[in-house]
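Title: Prediction job returns without error message
Component: structure pipeline
Severity: low
Priority: P3
Assignee: unassigned

Description:
Job completed but the reporter wants confirmation the result is attached to the right record. Sequence as submitted:
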Amino acid sequence: MTDQAISSMRREPAILRLIKGAALIRESWVGMVGLGIIVFWAVVALLADVIAPFPPNATGAPMTLPGGPALDGSGTHWLGTDQLGRDILSRIIHGSRQVLLYAPLATLCAYAVGIPMGLAAGYRRGLTDDVLSFIANVILSFPVLVLYIIIIATIGASGINIIIAVTFASAPGIMRIVRGLVLDLRNREYVFAAETRGESAWRIMLVEILPNARGPLIVDGCLRLGYVIITIGTLGFLGLGLPPPDPDWGKMITEARAFIQFMPHMAIFPCIAISSLVLGFNLLADGLREVSLRD
């Protein structure tokens, strides 16, 4: 793609570019399958109070097998119950709200920190690049899971603290991706033209460079959302997720460990929920990448 074509694309309104990009996903069946899975879980989360057969924390018959009836005749436990008699299907449905709330928030916060760092490092270069790259390299040198555990164990387990931990651990990786894109785009003709017009550095970075780096960042964002979902599940499994009694897919799995041999459904269904949502974001990312290569 020539600099002139990119420049004309840049002048299109952002909402128009977004609509065109969303329409292109129809060209990839892989992306459409991924989008369908994500939409399914989004609808489940929005309608949780309506479609859940039982309240998420209501207790009944402990460790009922899938398809077993409730003791009071009020319905059927389609996925069984846990060790406290709570309906697994209802807890999975309500747990989707937690995942689809905190995972996108944490990812957006990570990008809100990582993108300005990457723009400044790639465009300004010099001392700014050296300092920001050093900070990013120090943080990335720690194992991610260990970093999450240290942060959550230090500041406590809560939804806000999970967002803080994910932002702190993920922003340096995003910064390095943005920096690499900016190093390529900063030498384009439309950037030189903006510098000639005397536009400020941050206006050039945000208006001239960032919109033309959106493709790889959107694909990375979909993949990173999958990673964050796994992270939230892992923290819940380790007891560092959302505090009880909020339904948490990872916490549901760890609660089933003592009963896994004779009641495996208690862990299998939350694992399927996590895997399916992560698969949806991965397929969507693959579809977006496929469409971008055709363009």
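Comment from assignee: result matches the submitted record. The mean pLDDT is 86.
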